[in-house]
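Deliverable D5.2: sample structural annotation.
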Amino acid sequence: MAKVLVAALAFCAAIPMAASGGVLALRAARNSQVLQNKRADRDDLSRMKNVAMVKRFAKAGLLVRVPSSTRHYYLHRVPHNYRYLRPWSKLFLERLSKQYFRKHNQRLRVTSMVRTVEYQNSLRLRNANAAPAAGFFRSTHLTGATLDISKKFMKPAGVKWMRRVLRSLVSKGFLSAVEEFRQPTFHIMVHRNYPKYVASLK
């Protein structure tokens, strides 16, 4: 019964609410963060406690370095020690940014990737909207699987395109995504099975 309830909640969280212009936005449900953390647990993802742990995971290949600027995306105000993602999340960023650039001739602006408990706690001191670093509602940025893509400077057509692409991947079970409005970003947690989706396209 518990598994059925969790599945039902996950399905409800994946259904976006209507936004203006007839395009569907990826609205957060009250339990979105809980469901994302449950998925992170199923994917067996550790949470980063400090920078030393990030470096250990990077050395082991469990996190990969993300360049500060490429032809298709750039990092905005991401601290040097936090420019890492899980390998499948970096794969997602590379593919999405190339597709977006081809379609809209604009680079994606990435504002956050991996975080540590230390960093998340410091973030909460200056941002009341930030998720906690512990508990059921803790930030999934701690896993390294989550990234934020800014909507600032994004063309309206680009926002609609992003919504469409992210909704499709959410419905197929390859990621979790929430469109934030207080801070204009797409908050995206890429699931460990994403490379299987990419392989299926070949």
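Annotation notes: Residues 87-104 form the longest helix (18 residues). Confidence is low (pLDDT under 50) at residues 1-22.
The annotation will be released with the project's public dataset once the embargo ends.
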